[in-house]
Design brief:
Elements: E1 5-13, H1 37-54, E2 61-65, H2 67-78, H3 84-89, H4 98-107, H5 113-117, H6 121-133, H7 135-141, H8 144-156, H9 167-175, H10 181-196, H11 198-208, E3 211-214, H12 223-227, H13 251-267, E4 273-274, H14 286-292, E5 296-300, H15 301-308, H16 323-326, E6 330-334, E7 337-344, H17 346-355, H18 361-382, E8 389-395, H19 408-420, E9 424-426, H20 429-435, E10 440-443, H21 464-481, H22 492-501, H23 505-509, H24 519-536, E11 581-584, E12 598-605, E13 609-616, E14 629-635, E15 663-668, E16 673-680, E17 684-688, E18 693-696, E19 699-705, H25 706-709, E20 716-725, E21 728-733, E22 739-742
Parallel strand pairs: 1-2, 1-8, 1-9, 2-3, 4-5, 5-7, 6-10
Antiparallel strand pairs: 6-7, 11-12, 12-13, 13-19, 14-15, 14-20, 15-16, 16-17, 18-19, 20-21, 20-22
Length: 744
């Protein structure tokens, strides 16, 4: 019997706890919020995703709603949650303080300007004024209507396009300017109206059978690290751990029970699936998950690879080799019972999360369907009796900011294609497991301890700042344990503060790896939750908690912090490159010194291209202030292939310039033309076709398709930039180093 290819989409909806505990009240009560993202993502991302799906009844999916997100949504619906953005929005224009005006100019453009600001002329006009003339100019020259319009547009732009046919919203979008306080109050009411529909819509679609709603441990903690921070060393044996070992496995059943109870209350049934926070798993957490009654969990292909001691390779098209190992559920066997587990296809999930937003909607949808059809063909060719299940699991909110119209055209094209394709069938995880229970088994003790980020926990532990935060948490947890009289029943404030502090998000933002312009606020929130524990116990707050966990200064040099999709126009848009790697050139010692014409180098990737940007000194021009030719040379470490020396005169015989390279892209900085070549035998270079894009305006921007380099996914490469004049070596960068790049 031939099966269709079964596909399980799991959308993970989560926001950190932005509530400040302030006076130490519990999560369920009214509080001041530090950031607005529950409210804004709530109007843009949670309801529309399932409303769009409802139009395609043949397609079934799974949505994960984190308990701490649900509680915060309910505060906003009740009108008891206020964040600084909302407070400013509801303040009469003439009563805005100087501090509020500065805050508005600085933060009310916190959005992807390509997709959320540029489509609205008045919002774009204000944004350009700030970009071109600066914040100080806006503060000195803006009048009350400018502030009033910006306050309105920051809220309007985050309302999903699916709701733009609402008569009130349509009228506001048409109005464009001269918004009054009354308009902003009505916009706020509309936000609460949209938020109020989210949980009922999910419940309705679950009861109809088109949707499965799953849950996550209460405040999104990394359960394996609550059980034992030493589990960080399973994937990274030499990891530097916190000074104190955190081992509070007894907190795990508490998080699981609170999630279970809240779910039962809001959805009128018990949950079947559990999304472990950050898809983090370990043998130690399985008994509690099973004992609470959950039937299945999900994790990442890297975790499966470590567990099976099998490295998942991909072919040139990016499709998994030995797919039968990944595309099936497994049964984890423990003394407490069995638990099913599915593992996501990391690449397909990341394509939606980080790359398709930069492509035309229909082309992106066709690409994903093409991958699924290729997997379906492999399944047919394998003559497997067992059906395959492809799990695509990802963040259901953050990616859409990079899509045109919040992903609506992409999802419509995708859902229509999937509805029309007879060999592909979308299912919830539970309905697949009910029809095809897992037959492959994994002993529970063999399960790898890791997450969906590289199969390790390095995103949350091991860095000095992250470890310091764990030590602070350990001290607070010991303090709570020293008060056995403080139970959840008679001192809920202490326990709610603990649960909040155990959430994963604080550790995500501490230290190297991730950064935002709100790092200091996350630092403060983490410490406020720890304050809450001591306050509720009437214990003195340790002095170290009054200081930030780390200094939040912008790093000069850093590696890429996420995928990027810059528009190649030579303008160096700050948002396009904010997650790129950065190397300061102008301030380095040696050949490239303070007077260097090239000030800094930016680099990054997505699944389609490698990106490079060079910032020049103001007014610098090729042929006058800097050489006329830029050469990019790649080599591939530990890979056997033909390589050739740099084809320029006067190249110094010193590393890394005397290395041999495999690909060469020469950019003429005067004409912006390119020549692409590949190394051949006998130190020759042969011309090859390239689709690279280059643009020079205030800076140089370059995109080189991975297809030019003909390298498969998960491939390491190294890059050097060499400047030349008429074929003669002039200089190179970065100094005494190569740029390390990994193909996604």
């Amino acid at each position: 019997m031939s099966h269709p290819l079964y596909i399980a989409f799991i959308w993970h909806q989560h926001q950190p706890l932005y509530k400040s505990p302030g006076s130490g009240v519990s999560l369920s009560l009214s509080q001041q919020y530090r950031l607005p993202w529950v409210r804004l993502h709530g109007t843009k991302d949670y309801l529309d995703l399932v409303l769009l799906l409802e139009r395609y009844p043949k397609l079934h999916q799974t949505v994960n709603l984190v308990p701490s997100l649900i509680l915060q949504l309910e505060d906003y619906i009740a009108g008891t949650a206020f964040d600084p953005y909302l407070t400013a929005s509801l303040t009469p224009d003439e009563q805005l303080t100087q501090q509020q005006r500065e805050f508005i100019i600085q933060h009310f453009f916190d959005a992807n300007h390509h997709t959320l600001i540029d489509p609205h002329p008045r919002y774009a006009e204000l944004y350009q004024q700030r970009q071109d003339k600066g914040q100080a100019w806006c503060l000195a020259n803006w009048e009350l209507p400018d502030y009033g319009d910006l306050l309105a547009w920051h809220n309007l732009a985050w309302i999903d396009p699916l709701f733009w046919d609402d008569p009130e919203i349509a009228a506001w979008l048409k109005q464009g300017r001269n918004f009054t306080l009354s308009d902003r109050q009505r916009i706020y009411s509309k936000q609460r109206e949209i938020l109020s529909r989210i949980i009922p819509q999910h419940r309705k679609m679950q009861e109809a059978g088109q949707l499965e709603v799953t849950t996550t441990p209460y405040t999104h903690p990394i359960l394996p690290l609550l059980a034992d921070t030493n589990s960080g060393r399973v994937a990274v044996p030499n990891m530097t751990l916190p000074k104190q070992r955190f081992q509070w496995a007894e907190d795990i059943p508490r998080h699981l029970r609170k999630a279970w109870d809240l779910y039962k209350d809001r959805f009128g049934q018990i949950p079947r699936g559990l999304w472990p926070s950050e898809q983090s798993v370990s043998p130690a957490i399985l008994p509690d998950i099973i004992n609470q009654g959950y039937k299945w969990i999900c994790s990442d292909e890297a975790v499966l690879g470590w567990t099976l001691k099998h490295l998942f390779h991909r072919d040139g098209a990016g499709n998994v080799e030995q797919p039968e190992l990944l595309y099936r559920p497994y049964r984890l066997q423990t003394a407490e019972g069995d638990l099913s587990i599915v593992f996501r296809d990391h690449r397909l999930s990341d394509l939606i999360g980080f790359t398709y937003g930069a492509m035309p909607a229909k082309k992106a949808a066709a690409d994903l369907v093409g991958h699924l059809q290729a997997i379906a063909k492999k399944q047919r060719d394998s003559h497997s009796e067992q059906p395959w299940l492809v799990t695509i699991a990802l963040d259901g909110e953050n990616c859409w900011e990079f899509y045109s119209q919040d992903g609506k055209p992409f999802l419509e094209a995708l859902y229509q294609s999937l509805s029309d394709e007879p060999h592909l069938k979308l299912v919830t995880v539970s309905e697949f497991l009910e029809e095809f229970p897992a037959t492959a088994t994994i002993p529970g003790g063999q399960l790898h301890s890791g997450s969906w980020v590289d199969g390790s926990f390095t995103t949350w532990i091991g860095d000095p700042a992250k470890n310091r935060a764990w030590d602070y948490l350990t001290e607070a947890r010991k303090m709570l344990a020293s008060h056995p009289e403080a139970t959840e029943e008679n001192n809920p404030e202490a326990w709610e503060a603990l649960y909040a502090a155990e959430g994963s998000d604080w550790f995500w933002w501490f230290g190297a790896g991730h950064s935002s312009n709100q790092d200091a606020i996350f630092d403060r929130l983490f410490r406020e939750h720890l304050f809450g524990i001591y306050k509720a116990l009437n214990e003195p707050i340790p002095p170290y908690l009054k200081q930030p966990v780390e200094i939040h200064a912008a790093q000069a040099n850093h590696t890429p912090q996420g995928f990027i999709h810059p528009v190649i126009d030579g303008k160096g848009d700050e948002q396009d490159w904010d997650k790129a790697g950065r190397i300061e050139i102008g301030g380095a010692r040696g050949t490239m010194h303070n007077s260097s014409v090239i000030q800094r180098l930016w680099y990054g990737v997505d699944h389609l291209n490698f990106y490079l940007r060079l910032d020049f000194k103001s007014g610098a021009a090729p042929g006058r202030d800097l050489p006329t030719e830029l050469n990019l040379l790649w080599f591939y470490p530990e890979k056997t292939m033909v390589n050739s020396p740099i084809p320029l005169a006067d190249v110094p015989d010193a590393a890394p310039l005397n290395y041999h390279f495999h690909h060469l892209l020469e950019v003429n900085l005067l004409t912006q033309s390119i020549q692409f070549r590949e190394a051949g035998d006998n130190h020759q270079w042969h011309p090859r076709f390239s689709r690279a894009q280059v643009a020079i305006n205030s800076c140089l921007e370059l995109a080189v398709p991975w297809a030019d380099l003909q390298v498969p996914p998960d491939y390491p490469l190294r890059l050097i930039l060499v400047l030349a004049d008429e074929g003669r070596f002039s200089n190179y960068l970065p100094e005494n180093a190569l740029i390390p790049i990994e193909v996604p």
